[in-house]
Amino acid sequence: MSGYAPSEAARRSGFSLDTLRYYEKIGLLADVERTAGGQRVFTDDDLGWLVLFRCLRDTGMPIAQMCRYASLAREGEHTAAERRELLEQHAVRVEEQMRLLQRQYDHLREKIRFYERLPEPVPEAEHPAAIGSAVSR
Predict the structure, then answer these.
(1) CA-CA distance, 13 to 21, in Å (whole number)?
(2) pLDDT tens, N- to C-terminus, the chain (137 residues)
(3) Is 14 strand, coil or helix?
(4) How many beta carbons lie within 10 A of that of residue 84, not counting itself?
(5) Rounded CA gap, 31 and 43, in Å?
C-alpha cells in the first residue's frame, strides 16, 4: 500500500499527529486507509483535504462549518452551490477580520511613529544631577 505515514502527513500538512487523529475521529478526514497492522496511511487526496483544512482553520472557520463543508463535498456534485455559499459566507467574515486587523495595524504604526518623534532620553549617567553627585563623591 502506498501513501504517507502519519508523521509524514503531519510534516507535510503542518498539523500535529494529535490534530490528524482528532480530524479523523470527528469525521473531518474520512476513510483514512490503514495497513494490515492498523497504522493509518494518508493518500494524496487526504493531503489535499488537509491543505484545504489548513486554509479554513487559519482563516478562522469553526470546526463545525469545516465538517459541514466536508460532508457536503462527500455527498457529491449536487451540493456544489451549498458549498460555494458556505465558502462565500466565510470569505465575508475573513474580509471583515482583515479590515479590523488593518485598522488595528494602522493604529499600532501610528503609536510607533509617535514614539519615534519623541526626543531621545538623556542616559542617566549623562544627566546633570548624576554628574554633580558623581563629582561630589
Answers:
(1) 13
(2) 569 999 999 999 999 999 999 999 999 999 899 999 989 999 999 999 999 999 999 999 999 999 999 999 999 999 999 999 999 999 999 999 999 999 999 999 999 999 999 998 877 776 666 555 555 44
(3) coil
(4) 10
(5) 10
Amino acid at 94: V
First-last CA distance in the chain: 83
- CA distance linking residue 24 with residue 33, whole number of Å: 11
Report which residue type is found at 122. Answer: V
Residue tagged 479590523 (cell numbers):
100
Task: Judge whether 68 and 27 are in contact, CB under 8 Å.
Answer: no
**For residues 80 and 22, what is the distance between their CA atoms, to the nearest angstrom?**
26
Assess contact for 32 and 4: CB atoms under 8 A. no
Output the pTM of the full model.
0.75
Residue 42 backbone phi and psi in degrees, to 5 = -95, 135
Q: Tell me the chain's radius of gyration from C-alpha atoms.
A: 27
